[in-house]
Amino acid sequence: MNAPMLTRPLTLRFANLTDPIDRARVGAYVHEHPDGTPFHLPAWSAAVAKGCGQRSHYLVAERDVQGIVGVMPLTELHSPLFGRVLASAGFAVGGGILADKPEVVRLLADACWTLAARLSCPSVEVRGGPLPGPEWTVDDTHYLGFGRQLAADDEAELLAIPRKQRAEVRKSLENELAISVGQGAADIAAHYAVYAESVRNLGTPVFPARLFREVLAEFGSAADVLVVRHAGEAVAGVLSLYWRGTVYPYWGGGTAAARRLRANDRMYFELMRHARERGCSRFDFGRSKVGTGAAAFKKNWGFEPQPLTYYDRVAEGAAIRDANPLNPKYRLQVALWSKLPLAVANRVGPWIAKGLG
Hints:
- It is a single chain.
- The protein is of the alpha+beta class.
- It is built from twelve helices and 15 strands.
- Mean pLDDT is about 95; it is low at about 1-5.
- This is FemAB family PEP-CTERM system-associated protein.
C-alpha cells in the first residue's frame, strides 16, 4: 500500500510585471477565478505604477505542481499630504485576495502585513475579497456597488429604467449630440479635458493624464473612451473597461453644459448600447458612498445598491489613513478647489491625486 502523499508546501513570491510570461500566468489565474476583477489583473497594477509613479507589489502564492493558488495585487501609495498606505488595489474600487483555499488567504494576508511594515506603511487597505484575518477591521457601511444585467435592445433598456429617469434619457436622445468611441488621441484628450473639469467642479484634484493613457494602453481592446459632443465640443466622456461580459464605466464626467444637454444621460445609455454590441450582458455602475448624489443617480437608473466590504489593518499607535474628500473636515478645501481656475487645478491636481489611490 502506498504511503499517503504529503501536502505540497506553499511558496510566496512577487510577480514580475515586466515579464510577459509571468504576467500571462497570473492573468490566466485571475481570469479563471470566479471572484476575479479587472483590478486584479497585472495590467491594472502596471498601469497604476507607470501612470502615477506608485510602486506595485504583486504577491503570488504557488504550490509547485499545482501552480498559482492565490494572488494579491498591492500598491505602495505615498502622499506628502495623506501619508503612506499599502492598498489592494491602488486606484481601484475593488481588489483584495484571490485564493483557492482559506490557508492561502491567511498566507497572503500575513505576507501583505509584513511587507507593509518593511515599507513603513502604517496601514493597509483591502478593497474586497475574503476577510484577511481576525486582526482586520471590517467596513461594510460606507460604500455601495451598483450593477445589473443589460437588456436585449434599446427599447427594452429604456423600459428597464424607472419612469422619471427614462424620460430624461428620451429627451437626451432628441438632442443633437454626436457620439464617438475609441482610443484615438483626439478622444483620449477630449475625455481627459471633460473629466478634469468635472472633478474640479466637484472640488477634487484630477488624476494624472498618464494614468488614463497607461490604462488604455495596458488593457488594449478591453478598454475605450466614449465621448459625447455638442456642436463639435466635448461635453461628456467616460473611460470604460470590459471584463468577462461586463462593462465597467470607470472614469466619467461632464462639463457645466452637460446637464442642460442631458449629455451624461445620453453617455450612459450609449455606453449600454455599445457594450451590448461588444457582447456584454452586464453593466457595473461602480462604487458610490452611502447617502451621496452619485448613489441616488445610479438608483434612479434602476440599479439596486449592494454594500461593498473593505478591510483595514493599522499598526499600533497609528490611525487609518483618511484621504476621502467627502469627509466633513475637508469641506473648506473642497469648496475652495471647486473655485480654482481650471488651468491651475489641472496643473496642481495630478501632483496631489497621484498619491490618493
